[in-house]
Amino acid sequence: AATKLASAEKLMYFCTDQLGLEQDFEQKQMPDGKLLVDGFLLCIDVSRGMNRNFDDQLKFVSNLYNQLAKTKKPIVVVLTKCDEGVERYIRDAHTFALSKKNLQVVETSARSNVNIDLAFSTLVQLIDKSRGKTKIIPYFEALKQQSQQIAAAKDKYEWLVSRIVKNHNETWSNVSRKMQSSPEYQDYVYLEGTQKAKKLFLQHVHRLKQEHIERRRKMYLAVLPQAFEALIPDLDEIDHLSYVKVEKLLETKPDFLKWFIVLEETPWDATSHIDNMENERIPFDLMETQPAEQLYEAHLEKLRNERKRAEMRRAFKENLETSPFITPGKPWEEARSFIMNEDFYMWLEESIYMDIYSKHQKQIIEKAKEEFQELLLEYSELFYELELDAKPSKEKMGVIQDVLGEEQRFKALQKLQAERDALILKHIHFVYHPTKETCPSCPVCVDSKIEHLISSRFIRPSERNQKNLHSDSNIDRINLVILGKDGLARELANEIRALCTNDDKYVIEGKMYELSLRPIEGNVRLPVNSFQTPTFQPHGCLCLYNSKESLSYVVESIEKSRESTVGRRDNHLVHLPLTLILVNKRGDTSGETLHSLIQQGQQIASKLQCVFLDPASAGIGYGRNINEKQISQVLKGLLDSKRNLNLVSSTSSIKDLADVDLRIVMCLMCGDPFNADDILLPILQSQ
């Protein structure tokens, strides 16, 4: 209770915790001379102490207070260890303070740093009355405020750490030095201390390390299925093995070290391998983990499922080949109920079966067509009495179908009547025009193979020098636009195609040309109806009409087409060869006459400066479409126009390739396999 102290060269803030460790703490010495005491903090321990009676402590404090009161100095009662305080002790201490001239009481906890500053500032205010009165806050309220303050400081400090520390290999000494001047670091260290700041740093670094390891683990597990597919793709090799034996099998594979690395130290995530970013191979001890084993089981199941799906494909294919219900041209919707079962649906999607069915249909259709062609050859006498234009009447077609109707090869194409009729028409055309171009076996026709052999083996020296002159890709091609309304263009295009070979080639004066047709029946200003496209450059146009309306459509379309190319560099459509044709008129509901249609067509042809064809000029009666003679006449005119425009250069015929008098009699059916070299080369060499 003394108010004057003399303690020269003694350390201030001395406590038993510093004994023997004085050099580890901040050292401040007491001032020289006498030290005057201006006030007292009277401390009462309100915790439950060992071998200590609180009532005895209170009696001691009461006697101490009596001594302090004699000094007339300000006194503040401080309740310590409130973080472990007993409620009765706290209540008795407050009662004691009230009984002693209403002393001010501050509830504190030094360990939690709650209200420590408040105790001293309260005493200072009592000593210096000029200072503002300090508000005393109860312990639990102060603890709540401090907890909020610490939480806010902790959040800011953790944000600072996360911003500065990006690598799990950072050390506390380096990072703390970087953060020394940051207010977030200073505030948290002031409230919680350096050790807690370091602890949060270590937690953050540990979290970074675990995230890094997890990323590496996910990368390895993502690559592991690829390693299984590369090293053990064969189900028969691993289906009977245990997981341990599979691991041993992997080590025997030649490419094992391409996918895996065997570490001297394990586990891999506790070694420096986690920081070896250049080596992306999988640590082999990862195979001992549950996720790796699960991925192997998934790989095994995948191989088993693939085998089962392959078996289902084969079973489905065999089902198609053996089922009597699957006939050429039968739609999938009709065939599905006959060939599908629950097992098929369980293993594969219906789209896969549809694809297999589509390929099977293509095969059986081709086979059915070949067999039907053989049938037509066997009944050649049916086609001998037709007219020279090779267009059978409906009655004759009916007779042909009646005769062939009982044949199974005819019935096989029952679902493909249109294609069957087209084959009949092509066969009739072959009967009356038996050339290699119209041969049903084209391009394996014997004539074609012989000519190809001769041309490839015996070439004149002069022709070798001229070889590059005949390499124009457009030299044997005719691009023809067919313009007509209400189905006229499509109908004529189909008739022309019926006269072509299987690969759309047409014979003019004994020479074969590739014929490309573009029927147009709509607005020519639309891209879909344009005369020319990036892949189609027209050489001529057939303009069809059978009425005043269809003639007007032709005129408007030609004018629109010419207008669209005015001013353009490629305006050759202005000079495109045109042929205006009056074709079959199905019924005369408008009262127009043949004479008036011909007269109108002639006027338009004169206006458009094009060729005009009418039924009378062709020698056929009104009511019939354009015939093969007219088509050949038109195409020949187009070829002449192409030559005049230097779009086509002359080509040499195979007949001019050798000056040999070669006569060979061969009894070979077209399409039969034979080695042409063995047959022809000895004859040619002898010549």
TrEMBL record:
Residues 663-687 form the PG2 pseudoGTPase domain. One of its GO terms (cellular component) is cell projection. It is found in: Cell projection; Cytoplasm; Endomembrane system. Residues 472-647 form the PG1 pseudoGTPase domain. One of its GO terms (biological process) is Rho protein signal transduction. Residues 293-320, 358-385 form a coiled coil. Keywords: Cell projection, Coiled coil, Cytoplasm, GTPase activation, Nucleotide-binding, Repeat. InterPro entries: FF_domain (IPR002713), FF_domain_sf (IPR036517), FF_RHG35_4th (IPR057284), P-loop_NTPase (IPR027417), pG1 (IPR039007), Rho-GAP_domain (IPR051978), RhoGAP-FF1 (IPR032835), RhoGAP_pG1_pG2 (IPR045786). Its main location: other. Residues 150-207, 309-363, 365-430 form the FF domain. GO terms for molecular function: GTP binding; GTPase activator activity; GTPase activity. This is RHG35 protein. It comes from Thalassarche chlororhynchos. The gene is Arhgap35_1.
